Amino acid sequence: MLNFAQVAWRGLLMPFFDRDGVRLWYEERGNASNPAVVFSHGFLMDRSMFDTNIESIVDDFRCIVWDQRGFGKTGEVGKPFSFWDSARDLLALLDHLEIGAAALVGMSQGGFVSMRAALLEPDRVRALALISTRSGVDAPPVIESFSQLKAAWRHSGPEPLAADLSGLLIGERFDASSWVGAWRGMSRSGIDYPVDALTGRDDLTPQLGSITCPAIVFHGSQDRAIDMAHGRELAQGLPNAKGFVTIDRAGHAPNLTHPQFVNGPLRDFLLRYTG
To answer: Is the pLDDT of residue 14 over 80?
Structure first.
């Protein structure tokens, strides 16, 4: 039975759930009796970045996507937050759906969030698939560049930044027009708190040994946002890592731009470790 916040649209369930005074949007696809997989998107992205990936596994899994604070249908939030807050949002989503444990797929920022969820409640994370992410923090020049991004966005909006951002966050040879259109819909203050969460995150590297669930790491060979070396270091630091998958000639969002090289290894991993 649908609750008051749920609506059906094109055969998909599109509800919201509330945590910490924030209303967060999510969507389910697939059979609820199958093993659950929760997908967490990257910075300046939303749940739709996983559409093609979900198509390849939806027959075997209960697929759940959600829009994190500041993005998509969740939208702008009126208070600061950290990625630990977002990890608790993810765990609250599992509570809301009465899911005891799930596999987590996280891309970039979504990886930051998924790893923190695994540290907070390890028994609830069956497996981790991490895409274009890292355990460490950014160097001071990178943090400064994000501070400049925040100031420029507030002053002029996303339009002057769109070409550089799409190349950095998605890839040089990908049509990012739909994402640029989504950015235009954000307010000029809309990325303030998301940028603060990104630049203010803590270093998880000393805690990687506590993430003992099976894990797999994907990384594009031409990632400008997070160098592939960080992905390799992450895979080496996870005690139960099952592989490091290089996506040749892909940028920061290989699951979006090169799904044909991500979907097979991802499906095989999930089938093996979430049954």
So the answer is: no
